[in-house]
Amino acid sequence: MEIPSVIEKVIYKSLEKGSFCYTPAIAQTHSGVLAVTFDNGKEGTMLISADMGDTWQERGHFPFYHAHTFAIGESIYIMGHDDNVKITKTTDYGRSFSPVTTLTRKEKWHASSGSIVFKNGQIHIAMERHTAPNTIKGWAVADLAPVLWSADVNADLLDAKSWRRSEEKSFKELTSIISGNGFGIPFYPVKENEAVDLSEDLQNSPLGFLEGNVVDICSKDHIWYDTDALYIFLRSHTSGVNMAQVVKMTEHGGVFHPSLPLSPSGMKMTYVPFLGGHLKFNIIYEPKSQLYWSVTNQSFDSMLTLDAIKKTGIFGLPNNERHRLILSFSKNAVDWCMAQVIKSSYDARFSSCYPSALISGDDMVIVARSADKDAPNAQRTNTITLYTVTDFRNKTY
User: Fold this and answer.
1) What's the CA dihedral at 332, 284, 272, 192 to 10 degrees?
2) What is the Cβ-side half-sphere exposure of residue 20, based on CA atoms within 13 angstroms?
3) Cβ contacts of residue 248 below 8 Å, gap of 6+?
4) Which residues contact 326 (CB under 8 A, 6 or more apart)?
5) Domain spans, the chain
6) What DSSP state is assigned to residue 346?
7) Where are the alpha helices (DSSP H) in 74-130?
8) Contact criterion met (CB below 8 Å) for 252 and 166
9) C-alpha distance from residue 83 to each of 66, 110, 248, 376, 393 (Å)
């Protein structure tokens, strides 16, 4: 489906059987060069464009995945993991990479290309650590603890000593399975440490969160405004839709400490309404419009029965629809208004998901992993697609 004011371009397609494209990330150098990274197996690949996405060159590879990619000046940094957290950089647009620095030892991590915050000369990145590896049978997101990684932007970011880690609390420590809350969470039955068989070929794993975005609450009029705090907005696994989880990171003595944000009544806010918050999303604060912008997947029919889902191209549970990608805006990062459909397909097999976005002039430039007719299903995406939303600020109302 062609959409006005959105320029769509497939910039990479995996032609190797059994090789898929995951975790796209995008960054732009000071001179305007675009860099896209993504997983291709257990390693990462970098693509470079010097003409705002018209043409692309495949450059180097790096030996880890689930990467955040960001630029400082003309240097492009890639921070991800292969269980332990690792970082490398290129100063020649991917023709070569520095030796990889390992930031952790004997740990197991998870991440995706969530939003990064630069504030007061510091860079802040969210990743998640498995606090109890191999103890959960099924999709192990219940033991994840969001961790804020912070460093001085002028420091040697390849030196492990330049980085500091927040304290951590896992999903299980911050929250728990809630019953009788009136919100239908969990949507399908769950157990604490193992998946529940819902049908012959569908399971529901324990509640959890993952794939955090660092968000700075900028308005002094916001209930959550706190000069000593940043927030991590996380994809929420409830088996339902349109809920995210937020962890407040408050700095004391140079260390960030996690907690749940509070409502004015003093109640802990375990979940917040968030359009597309049940799948991987990206948030950007844009100072010119003084708005937050998010790129998310939109559910079309999450109320399908488990029998009916077999007739669709949806991979997994009914809430896992990834074929509608949308741009939204918000004054406060909680109340979201839909601004633009970026991509929509009538066939759920043709997914476009895991967005990473940046602002370049008047345009929003988004990279996503997508499935075309050659992909085995909506999950096993085989292409990387670039979407440019032109004059995105004019989408507000």
Assistant:
1) -160
2) 16
3) 224, 226, 229, 231, 258, 259, 260, 261
4) 275, 276, 295, 296, 297, 298, 338, 339, 340, 341, 342
5) 6-395
6) S
7) none
8) no
9) 10, 7, 25, 27, 39
Token pair listed for 381: 């995406």
Rg (CA), the chain: 20
User: Exposed (0-12), middle (13-18) or buried (19+): which is 306, by Cβ within 10 Å?
Assistant: middle
Q: From CA 18, how far away is CA 179, in angstroms rounded?
A: 41
Count of positions (residues) in the chain: 397
Residue 250 has a CB neighbour count (10 Å cut-off) of: 15
Q: What angle do CA 256, 23, 232 make, to 5 degrees?
A: 20
Task: Mention every residue, 6+ apart, whose C-beta is less than 8 A from residue 176.
Answer: none
The C-alpha atoms of residue 78 and residue 62 are separated, in whole angstroms, by 9
Question: Rounded to two decimals, what is the model's pTM?
Answer: 0.96
CATH 3.40.50.150 fits 6-395, yes or no: no
pLDDT in tens, the chain (397 residues): 667 789 999 999 998 888 899 999 999 999 999 999 999 877 999 999 999 999 999 999 999 999 999 999 999 999 999 999 999 999 999 999 999 999 999 999 999 999 999 999 999 999 999 999 999 999 999 999 999 999 999 999 999 999 999 999 999 899 865 554 668 899 999 998 999 999 989 999 999 999 999 999 999 999 999 999 999 999 999 999 999 999 999 999 999 999 999 999 999 998 999 999 999 999 999 999 999 999 999 999 999 999 999 889 999 999 999 999 999 999 999 999 999 999 999 999 999 999 999 999 999 999 999 999 999 999 999 999 999 999 999 999 9
Q: Which tokens hold the place of 309?
A: 């889902």
Other C-beta atoms closer than 10 Å to the C-beta of 144 total 29
Alpha carbons 282 and 234: distance in angstroms, whole number: 10
Centre a 10 Å sphere on the Cβ of residue 10 and count the other Cβ atoms it contains: 13
